[in-house]
């Protein structure tokens, strides 16, 4: 029995070594020269479980200021052998200017993955359609790449997700209508894409969210009334879209909202007269819309107003 147990333990460690060796073989520069020997747990950027000696974390940031400066070219992305690391909980591979290719679809088999950060590369292709299988995922950051396609509908199954950043890609389609199921979400950054459709009403059910950024897309329709009732919301950026209709009165009744940017849309009607001494704005930008009427007198009652921009509207005295 001891021999059998030892065999499977060594076999698992051997599989991990083969997997990270395949990753190394796609790299030139300081990583390739530092990842030597048969003890991959000692390789910079890798972390192993102290008991099982299985690889649990891969953290490779280009230009990292740690003991190993991660420099040099990295061609391709990561081979599918990554998916053999079945104990992986953290995958951070960021800011490599020469990483391209697609996200390996088999990555969704890593059921224990909690952090997936591939930001700042040149990754293309779609987000795996079954990304929702990663039920333990807390961080999903694919920002600053060349990812296309739509946001998979399965993303709403990531019930542990707290941080979602898909900004500055080429993602199209619509925001999933039931995004409100992501009850743990505290930050959602989807800016700088080609998203269309309307803002789902269910988004108002994200009662933990503090930072919501849907700016620089092609989102149309009106601003859901429920957004004004999101209790933790402190920053809302909807600028540079195709939004129309009136600004919901509840929005200025949200006392925690400190950064609000609705500029460069087609919003119309009057600005709701619902400001109060409890409002504290670092930024309030309503410029480049079709707003009309008078600027509400209650705006003078706010506790603090940092940057206020009402330019390029149809206000009158």
Automatic annotation (TrEMBL):
Annotated InterPro entries: Leu-rich_rpt (IPR001611), Leu-rich_rpt_typical-subtyp (IPR003591), LRR_dom_sf (IPR032675), LRR_R13L4/SHOC2-like (IPR055414), RLP23-like (IPR046956)
PROSITE patterns named among the record's database cross-references: LRR
Cellular compartment(s): Cell membrane
Keywords assigned by UniProt, alphabetized: Cell membrane, Glycoprotein, Leucine-rich repeat, Membrane, Repeat, Signal, Transmembrane, Transmembrane helix
All copies of domain Disease resistance R13L4/SHOC-2-like LRR, residue ranges: 100-185
Coiled coil: none
Record-level GO cellular component terms: plasma membrane
Membrane association type: Single-pass type I membrane protein
Biological processes, Gene Ontology terms: defense response; response to other organism
UniProt-listed Pfam families: LRR_1, LRR_14
Residues making up the signal peptide according to the UniProt record: none
Gene3D superfamilies: Ribonuclease Inhibitor
Family to which this protein belongs: Belongs to the RLP family.
PANTHER family the UniProt entry points to: LRR RECEPTOR-LIKE KINASE (PTHR48063), RECEPTOR LIKE PROTEIN 30-LIKE (PTHR48063:SF112)
Name the UniProt record assigns to this protein: Leucine-rich repeat family protein
Native organism: Perilla frutescens var. hirtella (Perilla citriodora)
